[in-house]
Amino acid sequence: MASRRRERRVVAVAGVAALVAVGLNLAFSAVASHRRRKRQELPGFSAQVNLSAAEIRRLADRIIAKSKETYDAVAAVPLDKASFANAIAPLAELDAQQFPLVQACVLPRMVSPSDDVCKASAEAEKRLDNHFLLCRQREDVYRIIKAFAERGERIGPEATRYVQCLVREFERNGAKLTQIKRKEMEKLKSLIDDLNLKYIQNMNNFTKFLLLSEEELAGMPLEFLKDLEETDGKRKVLLTSYHVTPILEHCKVGSTRKMIAVAYGQKGGKQNVAILEKLVLLRHRLARLLGYSNYSDFAIEPRMPMTSRKVLEFLEEMAEQLSDLANRELSILKDLKIKEEGDAQFGMEDLLYYMKKAIQHKVDLDIGEIKQYFPVKLVISGMLKMFQDLFVLRFEEIKDAEVWHDTVRLFSVRDASSSDLLGYFFLDIFSREGKYGQTCVVALQNGCLCSNGTRKVPVAVLLSQCPKEFDGNSALLRFPEVVRIFHEFSHVVHHISNSATFSRFSGLRLEGDFAEIPSLLLENWCYESISLKMMSGFHQDITKSVTSEACQSLKRRRDMFAGLKLKQEILLCLVDQIIHTSENVDIDDLIKDLHPKVMLGIPLLEGTSPASCFPRIAVGYDAVCYSYIWSEVFAADLFATKFKDDLLNQHAGLRFRNKVLAPGGSRDPLEIISDYLGREPSLQPFVQSRTMNSL
Predict the structure, then answer these.
(1) What's the predicted TM-score (pTM) here?
(2) Which of 4, 324, 521, 614 holds its CA 20 to 30 A away from the CA of 644?
(3) Which CATH class, in words, describes the domain spanning 53-176?
(4) What is the CATH number of domain 370-558+646-682?
(5) Cβ neighbours, 10 Å, residue 454
(6) What is the C-alpha radius of gyration for the chain, rounded to an integer number of angstroms?
(7) Which residues, at least 6 apart from 77, have a Cβ–Cβ distance to it below 8 Å?
(8) b/e for 398-425, b at 16 or more Cβ within 10 A?
(9) CB 54 within 8 Å of CB 119
């Protein structure tokens, strides 16, 4: 009965999406001529967002000078006189005051239409990064902070956590090392940076290609073939994801798929395998120098699991829980291969092809047609309405605000019940030349309490590259783009909901494990009929929202073969953890041994060397590849337990905002989520949800 009531609400809401854009007062139409808007005072937010190149350089100078002055003052405190007031509070206040100034210098490189401003911003970012790293390595400041911390003065739980974070940051940056060991640390970091760069360069410089006949490319779409360069009557296939992935998904010729997969799996060559092995050795040396038993423990210490042992246990349990589902999925794919090719031998080169065939057979969904239901304006207006309704918020556009481009809009965020100001967000969502190319969120200011008793409110920027209207035709979004914008706007709401005292505990400064959980939780609304109808409408008649059947198909398409997909991800994560917890591991041998065990007997493709083309393990996600799966599991538990049965329940939304989003990093994230759930998080809701929709 409750389900029917929700569906009736959707019938009313289906046409609501058409009215929301008017109701929310969103002026997304392009302005004919650019004008620099007048500066408007915004309560709780003082940083400028439209600086010239010269202003950026001067501001960076002032930031560095003030920072040095503050650190010098803390360093001058006698050890026996160190107190919260003279050792900790000045650093907290410095962070509160300087973060929005730093971001005012850094943001322009991503958004400014001026080359000079972008260049000045990039230079300022490099200078500021180097300066702040040196600050966190100052032994004289560290000794004062450590002396205060060891005194054990009672200062309240959030302040205690802040001091612990300060101590850990200094120690992880080598502040307690001797001068000789610090030089060794810097040398190790420099070597690691050089090898990271070489690894990526080797992949980017890989120019090998294959020449294939049209017979060998049977099954490929005509548009794909037309785009391939023709040489001696054959098609030139580059070993890039743009060519390789479509062939592995569409090509009917098994030998071609295998040839492509093997060639792509050698992309980095033996040189990259040697680089990765050397990188791992250097990382272990760095970790031991800093007092850790291995690099994985160093990387994971500030994250939710805290130890590599906990991560390995999590991955092994996940692999075991998914085995039954993955085996059933693999049986379906093997049957399809026997029917089509008469060959029971199933290899990794067959996965994408037969997954796509099975999905096309079982899911009645035309992705091209679905796009017609997601005009940009309607998606954005519906998304804003949904977040307001769910989290008891009110967004109000601020006209004539100072912005960096005419298509940018600024909104204030207030609690819908009390009208208290919570923060601001800028929407910079339309494409333009020179702008940062990915959808993301940038914090301009963190919410925090200043020493004078005033509060700075959180401010964020949502960046994207949505198409603009052309000749009166609605600009449309592909469904993955809808999900991506929704995901990133969830980060905006997380940031603005923050009520922590210290700037350090902002919603966008959390470790990745916790920071991604709310956004992955809220992605579920993109696959549910009641919420997706609020963000959709046929571009020629926006009163006609996407159908309930299409919503169900989108969800099923997401979850089909989730077991096998996750098994591949778990394999990568296990390799990442094992090589970063143990020394002298032959990475190629490790992968050959693990592959059939994790992938249900499917062997590693002969001739491939995955270690040569694992960019995430090499750069950026070393020892923390597990993080995304971890966050997905927590998000699934939260969704199933608190939201699944009533997606627009304001009581649940407000409680989530206050209990999970508001604390930011001021409490242990595992405690926050466990308290909210009333128990420890479980793997079961994640496995059950994927199993339900997979087959």
Answers:
(1) 0.91
(2) 324
(3) mainly alpha
(4) 1.10.1370.40
(5) 11
(6) 27
(7) 86, 87, 144
(8) eeebebbeebbbbbbbbbbeeeebbbbb
(9) no
pLDDT value at 234 more than 90 = yes
Q: Where are the alpha helices (DSSP H) in 479-599?
A: 479-496, 512-523, 529-532, 548-559, 562-581, 587-598
Q: Beta partners for 538?
A: 541
Question: Does 488 participate in catalysis according to the annotation?
Answer: yes
The residue with greater pLDDT, 302 or 692, is: 302
Instruction: Report pLDDT for 694.
Output: 67
Q: Which residue has the tokens 């993109």?
A: 526
User: Is residue 427 helix, strand or coil?
Assistant: strand
The first and second tokens of residue 561, run together, are 């073969």
Cα–Cα distance, 493 to 688 (Å, whole number): 28
Sequence ranges of the domains in the chain: 53-176, 179-192+284-362+561-602+615-632, 370-558+646-682
Pick 179-192+284-362+561-602+615-632's CATH classification: 1.10.1370.10, 3.40.190.170, 1.20.1340.10, 1.10.760.10. Answer: 1.10.1370.10
Distance (Å, whole) CA 635 – CA 655: 16
Instruction: Determine which of 241-255, 461-475, 563-577, 622-636 has the lowest per-residue pLDDT on average.
Output: 461-475
Over the stretch 661-682, which tens digit does the pLDDT of each residue have? 999 999 999 999 999 999 999 9
pLDDT at 518: 96
| CA atoms of 87 and 175, how far apart (whole Å) | 16
Distance of alpha carbon 588 from alpha carbon 594, whole angstroms = 10
φ and ψ at 498, to 5 degrees? -65, 135
- Cα-based distances in Å from 664 to 170, 351, 510, 514: 21, 40, 7, 9
pLDDT tens figures, 40-77:
678 999 878 889 999 999 999 999 999 999 999 999 99
Decide: 532 and 522 in contact? Cβ < 8 Å: no
Reading the block at residue 293, the tokens are 């038993």
**DSSP 3-state of 341:** helix
Integer Cα distance of 371 and 305 in angstroms:
39
Q: Which of 329, 488, 516, 528 is catalytic?
A: 488
Asked if 615 contacts 199 with a C-beta cutoff of 8 angstroms, the reply is yes
Q: Report the distance separating Cα 490 and Cα 639, nearest Å.
A: 14
The one-character DSSP state at 416 is T
Element (H, E) at 428: strand 421-430
pLDDT surpasses 80 at 370: yes
Length of the chain in terms of residues written: 695
For residues 202 and 272, the answer to whether their CB atoms sit within 8 Å is yes
Q: What is the DSSP string of 107-126?
A: THHHH-S-HHHHHHHHHHHH
Pairing of strands 234-238, 393-397: unpaired
Indicate if 179-192+284-362+561-602+615-632 has the same CATH topology as 53-176: no
